[in-house]
Predict the 3D structure of the following.
Amino acid sequence: MAKRVFITAAEVSGDLHASHLIRSLQELDAGLIIEGHGGPQMRAAGATIHTETTANAAMGFSALARVKEMFALLKWTREHFRKAPPDLQICVDSPALNFHFAKAAHAVGTPVLYYVAPQLWAWREGRMKKVVKWVDKVACILPFEEAYYRSHGVDATFVGHPLFDELEEPAGEARPVRAFGDAPIVGLLAGSRRSEAARNFPRMLEVAAAIRKRFANTRFLLPTTAATDPIVRGHLEGLADGLAFEIRQGAFDEFVPRCDLVMTVSGTATLHVALHNTPMIVVYYGRPLTWNAVGRWLIKTRTYALVNLLAADGALASSGRVTPAMHIVPEFVPWYGSTSPAAEHAVSLLSNPAELASQRERLAGLARKLERPGASMAVARMALGMLEQRVTAKSL
């Protein structure tokens, strides 16, 4: 009988990582039945998608509007697992939702593999008890996470970052800073979620206006996702200088290498930009009330940009003791109040080619240090090993 794997992803990036994993699983065992909840990338890779979960991905309080929808999804999944338990559950990133799927799988005796380890070292470390209780193996994509998880009694393995599987060109090859005069090319990366774009992109436009005031011929490149494209286009409607903005869905790897500087929201995107050796400024809007009442107490680290954490010593990164003096790139998180400090920093960088070149070189060095292709295949082999163990256990 064919073995069944159930995969759950809740964001655009998770959908992409899962799609590469699905292709690796099929390469190793073409007879696998792969199903789950996810997006178009997983479907294109050959999985049966029961529910589209990536189009309206949200975080924090923006996710509250989807609570009813998520409860219905979890109810359906528990019933599906009860009737026909899969042989393996693979959770991809998104712990807020995937912990529920892990619990549901555990309840019917299905082993759980977690791919893209939750960043519990950064915030809400108390959720580690859920990992210990419901997850059998964790595939870590950041070098320092394996030791961190193992120190808590979790069977964890560093597999490398899936971005190295997804890049068309090798990382770590620094490009010279071009002479752009008064016509720099600046990327505005508002995130992959609708809620992220809605909060961050209007503020990015304020920075763009300040850059255009200093560099009148600046061009802006805006790669979007299916979820964020309408938000970005909506904010650009009616702008007098709208022709300065080039927007294209799914153009991240085309646009970012062309940029002299990128302004990006915090998250995996910072590492993705770094692998193209493109200088950046990192931002992420946080509501003042929410941040001061809740966020600053829940989030252990005071460095937020992934590239700055990865550039530091692993023990420092997982402990939250990385200081601004160690940063490769400037970050403005939480980004509320005036946008002037970020705008002034952007103008300063664009006015200083030597500083742009220095950041490029440091990002290239980080990329060479981290480069380890094959994460998708490594996780696929872990999954097949777990499936074999399950078959063996059933036969005893």
User: Anything to note?
Assistant: The domain at 185-370 is CATH 3.40.50.2000 (Rossmann fold). Residues 194-214 form the longest helix (21 residues). The radius of gyration is 21 Å. The first strand starts at residue 4 and ends at 9.
